[in-house]
Amino acid sequence: xxxxxxxxxxxxxxxxxxxxxxxxxxxxxxxxxxxxxxxxxxxxxxxxxxxxxxxxxxxxxxxxxxxxxxxxxxxxxxxxxxxxxxxxxxxxxxxxxxxxxxxxxxxxxxxxxxxxxxxxxxxxxxxxxxxxxxxxxxxxxxxxxxxxxxxxxxxxxxxxxxxxxxxxxxxxxxxxxxxxxxxxxxxxxxxxx
Length: 193
Hints:
The radius of gyration is 19 Å and the shape is globular. The protein has helices at residues 3-6, 107-125, 135-139, 148-187, and strands at residues 7-12, 27-31, 37-38, 41-42, 48-52, 67-70, 76-79, 88-89, 94-100. The protein has 4 helices and 9 strands. The chain is of the alpha+beta class. Helix content is 35%, strand content 19%. A hairpin with a 5-residue loop joins strand 6 (67-70) and strand 7 (76-79).
């Protein structure tokens, strides 16, 4: 089954280049950058705050069970499985998969399949010459027709591994900050961040 048959909507994110800030009182929202997605998770510590003048339509904000795909190489696929809601505007270099058919598929399974197999397989088997994926490319990625009960047998495992991996990435990032601080404390170079 193709992505376009599994999700109610496949959307291109919000065009951030249309956001000019000349207001004295802009609204700030979080937004993604390429490294905001790791191990099929959206990592809140890697989101950036961006000022917006106008009201951004609700469809561009992250919603529950959305799958987000970074369209440039190296492609990243992520979702947000925590219960707290992120005030996150998804930029136009990401595609949003929204409204999964929950009777047929687990969003955890699909996110991990796309990240680890689906996009690579699509690129190898398609005649797409550019490295960037389009909305149409993503809509036509095939997802294996596996019973949802079978998907659910591995979805908790995938989710646990993804969560552990993102925690590990945060620990490594923190360790790098500690190392830099330690070196700066004896070298005295305050310009290095």
